Amino acid sequence: MQAATQKLAETKEWQPLGANGDPIDPSKLPVQEAFLYDMQHRFQGYGGGLGNGKSTAGCLKAWYLSHLFPGNMGFIGRLDGKELRQTTIAEFKRLIPDSFIAKKNDQLGYMKFKPQYGGSEIIYGDLKEERFNNINLGWFFIDQAEEIDVSRFELLVSRLRRQTPLIGDDDKPMMADGIPLTAPTYGFVTFNPEGTNSYIWRYFHPDSPERECICHTGSSACKQHHFKLYQASTYDGLKAGFIPQDYVDGMLAVFPPDARRRYLEGSWDVFSGRIFPQFEQRVHVIDYIKPEPHWKIYESIDHGIKNPTAVGWWGVDEYGNRYLLDEHYGGDGKPVKHHAEVIKAKRAQFKQPITLTYLDSACWAVNQTRGDAVYSTVDEYNSYGIYPIKGQKDWDAGYSRICRGLAIDPEHVNPFTGERGSPRIFIASHCTNFIKEVTGYRWKKNRITSQLKNEPEEPMDYNDHHMDEWFYFEASRPQSPIIVAQTKRDVLKELAERRIRFNPLADTRTVGTWMAH
């Protein structure tokens, strides 16, 4: 660290300025300062209200890690590339002098610092691009991390494996017992809170039930000891002088109450953008769901070629409860034959017939060729013994049914607890791909401004393959099984009634005793 401190001292002629034009002094907001200089925790999150200095702190932390550990490589990302360049990267360039940079290419999302400033490299871009999947990183920074799903976060965590040698005061690699020392790796995110279902809360918040200690396994990603959360509100930023009073007054004048709580106070209890905020794992996810023999089982398929193919097996009981019993989720260009074989294997496990199979109506388009033959995707499924019908594409009807099914009906009896107050949709806990999609399924207009306008909203067309098959199933209005009521015989009562009717003095009698009548 002595070498790192000296390297920072070499840049003493540089003083980063805040948005208000004053020199940045992190000590004015202790939370920001603690986040900025935290070298102990491998993963750090800084969230809360707007104007609390989180994006600025993230950019400065990216610079410090590049400068402190020469030859490092980091990544700065956000869901949307255009917004990344207009906000996060613009802030980074505002803070870090252009004279520190030796090479840069904004089109490719790349910059490299001059040797005297560490010679480290930074790549940046949206988190839809796959070119970052095979790069070994020393650190990553996700701005507005609530916009992405957990799979993108976990992907970047898996890329933290760069071996950056630590350089001593003599400009030689530092050694310990003859082994070269390497720089620690870090992942840090900045965000606006988005509720207790979000992966950010699950990974970073001290109240998360997932933060059990796993240090005994040798893991360097223990949520209890290696993840640290920092939070500050808009009012904290105001007190620290980061933003003026009129900025806060303007938001108070136009933001509805929920937006104030989330974007000013940094509340975890209010969040927007999710299409199904009603979905809660503690309510809707069940560890084990065994279908009853009289249930109807439906199959719903969203076929993908480059994208994953998602299949859901849905059980429906006589009370209108719907249960996701199992799933299939696979892509990588696998042919219809592969998916058909998986479907048949799953069917065999249920040991009862499938009522109906739904498939995306686009699969009826005759747009496939093999030699001189022209055929449709559904033709292929038919050839392997799978005979689906067209799934309904009435998005509004599907959305309405799903919302009603997820809602808690105070009079509905929960099929697992027997208590009143229950939803009608339940998901088996092993259907992890479905659960990831439903918790990450968001509107395209995930902006504060869209909450203030009467604009029609559309879902994001991204990681929605299970969502599509779910909508085919729900919009097709699956029928509940009809249970024929069977009257239980009361044998003693029948015998008593026969005894009363029996008359041994009658002119016409049936041979036998009263018990024969």
Give the SSE layout.
Blueprint: H1 2-9, H2 30-36, E1 43-48, H3 54-68, E2 73-78, H4 81-95, E3 101-105, E4 110-113, E5 121-126, E6 139-142, H5 150-158, E7 175-176, E8 179-180, E9 186-191, H6 199-204, E10 227-232, H7 234-239, H8 245-254, H9 257-263, H10 281-284, E11 285-286, E12 296-302, E13 309-316, E14 322-330, H11 336-350, E15 356-359, E16 368-370, E17 373-375, H12 377-383, E18 389-390, H13 395-406, E19 409-413, E20 420-422, E21 425-428, H14 432-440, H15 465-475, H16 491-501
Parallel strand pairs: 1-9, 1-10, 2-5, 2-6, 6-9, 11-21, 12-15, 14-21, 15-18
Antiparallel strand pairs: 3-4, 4-5, 7-8, 12-13, 13-14, 16-17, 19-20
Counting structural domains, the number is: 3
Shape: elongated
Low-confidence stretches: 1-9, 445-456, 508-514
**CATH topology tier name of the largest domain:** Rossmann fold
> How far from one another are the termini?
102 Å
Taking the sheet with the most strands, its summary is: 8 strands, mixed
CATH architecture of the largest domain: 3-Layer(aba) Sandwich
Q: In CATH, what is the homologous superfamily of the largest domain?
A: P-loop containing nucleotide triphosphate hydrolases
- Mean residue pLDDT: 85
Number of strands: 21
CATH class of the largest domain: Alpha Beta
